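Risk mitigation, structural track. In case the binding assays with fe (ii) ion fail to produce interpretable data, a predicted complex structure has been prepared as a fallback.
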Amino acid sequence: MRIVQISDTHLSHLGGVTSENFSILVDFVNTELRPDLVVNSGDVALLSPDSAEDREAARRLHERFDAPVRVLPGNHDLGEPGDHPWMGLAVTSERLRGFTDAFGPGRFLELDTEGWAIVGMNSEILSSGLDEEREQWEWLEGAAAASRDRSVMLFLHKPLWSPIPGYTEHALAIEESDRERLLAVFSDSRLRVVGSGHLHCFRSAFEGDVVTVWAPSSAFVVRSKDFSFGLSQLGVVEYRIEGDEVEVYFRSIPTLCEQEPFAMAEFVQTMAEIEAATASR
Ligand SMILES: [Fe+2]
Ligand SMILES: [Fe+2]
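Fallback model:
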């Protein structure tokens, strides 16, 4: 089985570089990689969880994949939990409904014939206290029961382990308590791979026995003076599963265009809209 993980596509109904990159990516995935499944690990929409237009544009673009697609939400699709969400955009039931109406439940379970369970989940409701969080934990218990004694590949937007433990300015990973609970839920299975997005770079490394994969963005790389980690290139991740073995590859797509976010007109316009909405609250 082959799975392609795409991430942080940051698509806008205004078009622009991120949409152009996405079209190139779809052609590359359909013709070169030909996977059995495509997973988008979130930040599907450009920036605003309140843009139904961006969601609709993104939904239509995803229809161009030949393979089945599963879309997971990121912080820019739902808002975030915690006391200091980006731009004050907190995850809410209403924002979650907007996402699920466009892309489905934001979680999935696929059991293959080679003993693998492919699990996708929503990282942005963890520690939110919403009813939907409790409901997802119940669903995860069921998914773990169905995955008992299988190798598990888990996809979600935010990493389980922070690249900079103790860094608190932005949420770089899920809360430690949620990670411990997740690991406990899957303790009767073999959690082999965790594929996340959010960091806009590629890395494949071990955390104990678990291969942790950071999927790159297809939209833009994040260059911060505060931190630098992983391979800062645009691309996708390919997973090749053969029996009990899994191989992980970074796939570069040379014709993708890398541009500074603030050099994109649609990015600047959307930021201004979010700032105006924040100021009027
Ligand atoms: Fe992102
Ligand atoms: Fe993100």
